[in-house]
Amino acid sequence: MRHSLEKKCVGLPVQLGYLYDVRSEKFVPMSILNSNQLDKVIIQTTDVPSIEYDYTLNDSYEEKFKKLEISPELKLDILCGLLNTGSGSVGKEIPELLRKDLRILEV
């Protein structure tokens, strides 16, 4: 029986093996897995039997966070602007869905 690991994250999609430059907080478009033969030996691909799409007509932050299943702590970080919205921070990238209209909240 095959098992799959499913993990939700907020971040940039990158190719397997890409390097990350911590000084610039960007991914380097160079893979350590640069050989096609090596890729076939260590990378196992699996066809996805189905894809789910989840739509909402409501454009509120509450609905966006709910659909993306973002934790309360991460919600606070996003709304306070504590996350780096640059082009390469690992696991800290705000999805385009949220970034397009985030505004500073006045208290």
From TrEMBL:
It comes from the Eukaryota. It comes from Brachionus calyciflorus. InterPro entries: Cytolytic_pore-forming_toxin. This is Uncharacterized protein. PANTHER family: AIG1-TYPE G DOMAIN-CONTAINING PROTEIN, FIBRONECTIN TYPE-III DOMAIN-CONTAINING PROTEIN.
